Structure formats: C-alpha cells, structure tokens
Amino acid sequence: MDPSKGCPMLVTPSIRETPTDRADVYAFHIMGEVSEDDMEDMAERMNDVFDRHDKVSMLLIFDRYEGAETQAHFDWDVIRSRLRSVTKVEKYAVAKAPERAGKLVERFGKLLPLEARAFDDVDAAWVFVGARPVHTA
C-alpha cells in the first residue's frame, strides 16, 4: 500500500510500482518480458489513476527488459490508458529504455501535449519528473 496515494502498489511478474514522495508522480520498474496480463494490470492501474487526478507524471525505469508479448499492446484497457495519457500525463520519462523505445518517446514528446524524455541516467529521470523514490521497510 502506498500511503501517499491511498491505494495498493502495482506488482506483477515484470512490473513493480515504486512509491514516490509526490502523490501525482507514478514510477514503475519494468523487468524481463512484459506479458499481456502485466500490461493489462498496469493499464487498469493507470486508468484508475487518471480517474482520480487531473494531471500526473510517469517514470518507467527499464531493468533487464526483454520486450513485451505482441498481444500485450492490443487489450482494450491498454489502448484506453494510452489514449487517456495524452491529456492526463504532464511529464513522461523513461530511463535505461532500449534505444528504439527511447527515440520513440522523444518523438512523441514533440508531437503530443506533454513533456516526454528518455534518459540513460535514472537520477536525471527522477529530477525531470520532480520526485524521488520512497524506500519502505
């Protein structure tokens, strides 16, 4: 449970939500291969977040990322969360993303009404979204 946000943290086999020191910043570690179920769980989480906030910032930190199952991108909740993110996300950062994904994020940041950046350095990505991780016992 993340007390600052009043809701349980998302934990799946390949996605682990990291608590932050700001109620409007959501951070996730992406590890291994993202399954269809993992992607759907994250989409449901973010759709819930979008229902409760006017604007949020997001940080995705890639760690030993092995890609995503092809069908993971075609679930309705996943598509809905991506569409909603255009108007609900203020800052979107990826850290240590595969080169192709990082370049895609940078391009979308120029086309969409949000700030999107890719970082090699995790600390710089945290600075960009204006938050820090909260370490729990």
Attribute tags:
137 residues; 5 strands; 5-stranded mixed sheet; Transcription Regulator spoIIAA; alpha/beta; 37% helix
Overall morphology: globular
Give the integer mean of the pLDDT values.
85
At the fold tier of CATH, the topology name is Transcription Regulator spoIIAA
- Unreliable stretches (pLDDT < 50, length at least 5) are none
Q: Please identify which CATH superfamily we are dealing with.
A: STAS domain
Radius of gyration: 14 Å
Number of folding domains?
A: 1
Helix-strand string? EEHEHEHEH
Secondary structural class: alpha/beta
- CATH secondary-structure class: Alpha Beta
| DSSP helix fraction | 25-40%
Number of extended strands: 5
The CATH level-2 architecture is identified as: 2-Layer Sandwich
- Please state roughly what percent of the residues sit in beta strands, choosing from under 5%, 5-15%, 15-25%, 25-35%, 35-45% or over 45%: 25-35%
Overview of this structure, please?
This is STAS/SEC14 domain-containing protein. It comes from Palleronia sediminis. The chain has helices spanning 36-52, 76-88, 99-111, 122-129; strands at residues 15-18, 25-34, 56-68, 89-95, 115-119. With 137 residues, it is an alpha/beta fold. The chain has one domain (15-129): STAS domain (Transcription Regulator spoIIAA). The protein has a 5-stranded mixed sheet with strand order 1-2-3-4-5, with helices on both faces. The longest helix is centred in the N-terminal third of the chain and has 17 residues, at 36-52. The two termini are 12 Å apart.
